[in-house]
Amino acid sequence: MKKHFLEFEKPIAELENKIDELKQVQNESTVDISSEIASLQEKVQELTKDIYSKLTPWEIVQVARHSMRPKTLDYIKNIFTDFIELHGDRHFAEDKSIICGIAKMGAQSVVVIGQQKGRDTKENLERNFGMPKPEGYRKALRIMQLAEKFKLPIFTFIDTNGAYPGIGAEERNQSEAIGKNLYEMAKLRTPIIATVIGEGGSGGALAIAIGDQINMLEFAIYSVISPEGCASILWKDSTKANTAAEILGITANRLKSLGLIDNVINEPQGGSQYNHNEMMIKMKKTLKDNLKKLQEYSIDELLERRLERLMSYGKYTE
User: Fold this and answer.
1) How many other C-beta atoms lie within 10 A of the C-beta of residue 316?
2) What angle do CA 110, 116, 120 make, to 5 degrees?
3) pTM of the predicted model as reported, rounded to 2 decimal places
4) What confidence tens digit (pLDDT) does each residue in 269-297 have?
């Protein structure tokens, strides 16, 4: 996979380019410079570890938005089998920004729902940049109710910068669609495991994130508003997004400390965008363990725990 380096990764990019140059020299001559290449590769690993161990919240935002990060369809392909996509909300239209379907995890039949961004402009236009419209959320709810009917566990993958704010979406009652999902998911009688894999933006993310187990990738973000949006409101200046990212507390470790998520899934060194295979192995193990744990509870116990979680949001000390 060709790497797309972010601004703060420039020192890594320079070493990687030097390694590529040395490899080309070795291929074109009889000189053995494999030891020099190995030494540089070791330096890349050390530098990557050092840089990623002290990322700022704004740098984590950039990683969360990286175009090469695994998307919902990547996780479906690598973790589940026999996936059958289901389409349409039975009210208005199909929304390609949300993927819904039935699949298997091992021998267990499950339902999978997730927001889908594209990797390039063409894909993003097709997927509406991962921003669902009301019909997307209504489709998701329809499939979740199907899961409840047939007692199938639900896995959701969150990756959106927010619900689509267009006029058509507002005319078709975007806020009602999101609110209805929150209300119905709170009392859905089947296990729900939600995982933030990239951006978790505002109510657009929350609409498929109410559950019994909330996971979040190490370099994902989850927030009531984007840093740019926050900066525009507070300071009338979107260039102060880096400051807003610090204040918002949008990183996985911060949210875990606040009790807003249950588990931080560590990513491969340098982020999941550069090592899909290792990320898939970690994600599959985590989701299997989550499901096994939740299946130890009765449905009534799950609902009680889910309600306790929701009622605990917003706690504060004077």
Assistant:
1) 4
2) 150
3) 0.93
4) 999 999 999 999 999 999 999 999 999 99
